Amino acid sequence: MTSGRRFVLVACAGAWLISAGCANFMEDVMHPGRRHARERAALMREHERDVAAREKKYAEMTRQQYVAEHEDMLTEPVKEAILSGRVRLGMIADEVRASVGKPNRINRSVGSWGVHEQWVYDGGNIYLENGVVASFQDRG
What we know:
By secondary structure, the protein is of the alpha+beta class. Helices cover 45% and strands 27% of the residues. The strands form two sheets. It has a four-stranded antiparallel sheet, with no helix packed on it. Helix 1 (23-30) packs across helix 2 (32-69).
C-alpha cells in the first residue's frame, strides 16, 4: 500500500469489515460497552437540555398567568420584575414565588418584632420581614 494508511480486517458475525484506522470503530469492536456508554451519555445530555427548556417555558407561563390574574393589584415595576424573573424590594411573598419560584429552603425567625424569613435559592437568598421583601443577595 502506497497511501500510508493501515487497514485492519475484523471478523464480525461471519463478515469481514475493513476499517481505515478508525479508533472509534476498533474501540466499539473491542469494547462494545464503551459505545453504549457514550450513547447513553449523549442521550442524558439531550434529555437534560429538554427538561431545562420545558422548565424555563413553564416558569415563563406561570409568571405570565400570575400577572394576568393579578393585573389590577400589581404596580408596573412589580409586573415587569415578575415577568422577567427578578425580585424587587417591597414585593410580597406570593409575588416572589411567582417571579423566581419556590425556594429550596426557608429559615424563619419569629419574635416580638414579627416574622423574618430567609428564602434560600441556588442563586442567592431573599429576606422577608412580615411577608415583604426587605433585602436580597445573589451569588453572581
